[in-house]
Amino acid sequence: MAVIVLLHAFGSSHRAWRPQIPRLREAHRVLAPDLPGHGGSPGPFSLERAVGSVRDLVLAEDEPVHLVAVSGSVSVALLVALSEPARVAGLVLSGGAARGRPGDAVQRLLMRLLPEGVITAMLQGVYAGGQVEYRAQAAEDLRQAGKGALLSGLAGLGRLDLRARLGEITVPTLVLNGAMDQANLAPAEEIASAVPGAELRVVPEAGHVWNLQRPELFTRTVIEFVG
Predict the structure, then answer these.
(1) Which CATH number fits domain 3-226: 3.40.50.1820, 1.20.1530.10, 3.40.50.11540, 3.40.50.2000?
(2) Each residue of 113-167: pLDDT tens digit?
(3) Cα separation of 139 and 119, whole Å?
(4) How are beta strands 65-70 and 3-7 bridged, if at all?
(5) What would you report as the CA-atom Rg of the chain, rounded to the nearest whole angstrom?
(6) In b/e form, how buried is each residue of 85-101, taking b as 16+ CB within 10 angstroms?
(7) Spatial CB neighbours of 212, under 8 Å, sequence gap ≥ 6
(8) For residue 54, with 0-12 CB atoms within 10 Å meaning exposed, 13-18 middle and 19 or more buried, which class applies?
(9) What is the spatial distance between Cα 68 and Cα 19, in angstroms, rounded to a whole number?
(10) How far apart are CA 35 and CA 146, in angstroms?
(11) How far apart are CA 119 and CA 205, in angstroms?
(12) What is the pLDDT of residue 73?
């Protein structure tokens, strides 16, 4: 039985893993924590606090864990793997990046200017994986986390640059990216090319948060990787 830790996107919560948790728990120990300031976890949120919370969780386990991360939490997973290499057995990284990008500052500025309700309306479809049944859940999670958490997460990612350290990661690594998530394809390729032995898979007919969009495929991908 492997230990699998599921890390949600910034502005989301553990509920985003609802399709995966029951199936994965049939054969594995599964942990789906809320990052600080998300779901039921007290804030405030920052990239540093997110890494610290996941690091504490990993260190509390009796055996190395598999980290499965989407969106902004990909950077959290990479930082934990780099800080505690002996405690991580493998990485599944979807739709994330190892460094900030030129457009990040503009994105933060626009988000700072927009009302929180507008931001929620804009992002709930993305965070629901484009699926109507998850839109209310995504909107609730976004409101709970708040605009401040998103801004803090974007600021932390904007300061990040792990390119020089990705070669230190030696555990099996699977990098995923939805074919319709073009904005994150280059960052995915960058991670896959820099981590020794990493595999990159571009998933057809999938967007950014595709574990909700194509849940059976995402779950099967994790099961096969861990196995």
Answers:
(1) 3.40.50.1820
(2) 888 898 898 899 999 999 999 999 999 999 999 999 999 999 999 999 999 999 9
(3) 10
(4) parallel
(5) 16
(6) eebbbbbbbbbbbbbbe
(7) 16, 19, 128, 129, 130, 131, 134
(8) buried
(9) 14
(10) 13
(11) 25
(12) 98
Span 198-221, mean pLDDT? 97
Q: What percent of the chain has pLDDT over 90?
A: 89
Burial 144-157 (b: 16+ CB within 10 A, else e): bbbbebbbbbbbbb
What count of Cα atoms within 13 Å lies in the side-chain half-sphere of residue 166? 24
What is the rounded CA–CA span in Å between residue 207 and residue 194?
23
Q: How far apart are CA 88 and CA 169, in angstroms?
A: 10
Q: Within 1-63, where are the H helices?
A: 21-24, 47-60
d(CA 2, CA 157): 29
Measured between alpha carbons, how far is 79 from 217 in angstroms, rounded to an integer? 26
Phi, psi of 27, deg, nearest 5 = -130, -5
Instruction: Give the pTM.
Output: 0.96
Which structure tokens are listed for 24? Answer: 């994965």
- Residue whose entry in the numeric block shows the structure tokens 């500052």: 105
Give the span between the Cα atoms of 149 and 153, in whole angstroms: 6
Cα 97 from Cα 222, distance rounded (Å)? 19
193 CB-contact burial (10 Å; exposed 0-12 / middle 13-18 / buried 19+): exposed
